[in-house]
Design goal:
about 180 residues, eight-stranded mixed sheet, alpha+beta, Aminopeptidase
């Protein structure tokens, strides 16, 4: 992503919080990812086209870091989820997604991981971060609200999935 002065802006490859290390996925993460990625609870709100555990890992190890960085969320040395940012450099916006292993739901990990990613996204010059969730996924909606996001029912114009098409809701946060 280029900034106003022509410099290349890129998301950090390693981020840390008090409890978490966010880093690029690695092939050796397979045992941890396999332990939760095909779990029916984990997949409950994901579309049928969401990749299997093996494909998920392959996609995130070899992805385009500048356009779509994805971080493994590491807690106590184990991968317990992932955070993903789909960057639209031209509009300085990004879509945020976060998935956590069911064994670690309700521990505040999604909020903690997303907060450090969003802060970093704004620090490199993005002006808007948005996310979507299944309309029935109260936990994800609650996490988006706690992150400071607000519901956005405006129609999209740039190829984003319309919330009504997938029974999803969209939330947005602007850099202040």
């Amino acid at each position: 992503m280029s900034g106003d002065g022509g410099e290349v802006l890129s998301m950090p490859q390693i981020l840390a919080t008090e409890r978490l290390i966010l880093r690029q996925f690695r092939r050796e993460d397979a045992p941890d990812v396999n332990s939760f990625a095909d779990d029916p609870d984990y997949r409950r709100y994901l579309g049928e086209d969401h990749p299997s555990a093996a494909d998920f890992l392959a996609n995130n190890v070899d992805g385009d870091w500048h356009r779509a960085p994805s971080w493994a969320i590491e807690l106590d040395g184990r991968v317990v989820g992932g955070v993903f940012l789909g960057i639209d450099a031209a509009s300085r916006r990004a879509e945020l997604a976060c998935l956590i292993a069911p064994a670690h739901w309700r521990e505040g990990l999604a909020l903690e991981a997303c907060r450090v990613v969003v802060d970093s996204a704004f620090a490199i010059g993005l002006t808007q971060v948005w996310a979507r969730a299944d309309a029935d996924n109260a936990a994800s909606i609650g996490a988006m609200k706690r992150l400071g996001m607000h519901r956005d029912d405006a129609p999209t114009t740039d190829g984003e999935v319309e919330p009504a098409e997938k029974n999803s809701v969209r939330y947005v946060l602007f850099r202040t």
